[in-house]
Amino acid sequence: MKDERIKNPSSVERALIEDKIAAGNHVILQFDGPRYTPELLKKINNLCGELGKNLEVRFYGHYSGGAFDGSTLRFLPDVEALSIDCLRDAINLSALNDLANLRRLSLGIYGLDDPNFLKPLQLRNVERLCISETAKANIDLAPLETCINLNELFVVGHTKNIDCLARLPALRTLSLGHISKKQKLEFVSNIQSLRRLVVILGGRENLSEIHHTSLEELEVLRVLGFNNIDSIDAFPSLRSLVIEDQIRLKNIRFSASNKHIQSFRIFNCKTLRDLDGLNYLSELKSIRIGMTALNIDSILEQHLAKSLQVFSFHTGRHKENATIRKKLDALGYRE
Predict the structure, then answer these.
(1) Listed residue (286, 264, 272, 273) closest to 334, CA to CA
(2) Among residues of the chain, what percentage have pLDDT more than 70?
(3) Is 113:90 a contact under the CB 8 Å cutoff?
(4) Are 85 and 107 in contact (CB under 8 A)?
(5) Per-residue pLDDT for 1 more than 80?
């Protein structure tokens, strides 16, 4: 679903918004400063009551107008999708506690310093939640245990009582950002409903703590010190693998446990020289590789699946890229 953003609207263009939603878009009415009136917000609220989570209201920035005033939220009692993010500071956030219809919520207030901030929120029906970075990264995640409908969660830096995520019955997508290497990730293995895991930034050498028989998608992005993914066979249901910006990773070895992988993308892993076990990937459809130390011939010499259709390989050298592209085209692979 594509996001359609309407910045600082001065009126509610109902027909326009409904047309965008009818076309399959998620519409976001966003304000970068106090450019709204109670009358405008009340009209937006009425539409939120009709369109539900397909219409999102977002407050961000507010740099010239000072801190975001959360009391504004009292004019949006029916909002189901709300973002209060990319903010330095906010005041009167207790108004957020009264929003009983939330289904999607994004929080990103850097100056927020309240470990118990989540406790009074009405989160039971929230399906998608993003808790972004704060200066002290001290938000207690224990209240998330009440989120029985939570399907997608993105947490940046906060780890207090993070183990409670293992008890969320509907969580399918988990993104962990800026998580310290001191924080153990064993709890991820116990999230039975989990199908997609993204680990971005932060630091750790590997993911050997995690074993998950139902995980289908795994992304490891810009994790400091990451140098080993031998534990990939701990994910026998894996269908998609993405690894980016891992300059210490030297090899990837697939095994018979990875036979269901259909696509993988490896980018900017400059010391990666060995990619083995491709013969085990009998359902493979797409390979995308860029900016590594891999040799294209060492890959083509392996027994690649007949199902493979997409194969792109980039080295950073234009002439060599062109030569490789001709070779892959001749083999019937498309970009």
Answers:
(1) 286
(2) 100
(3) no
(4) yes
(5) no
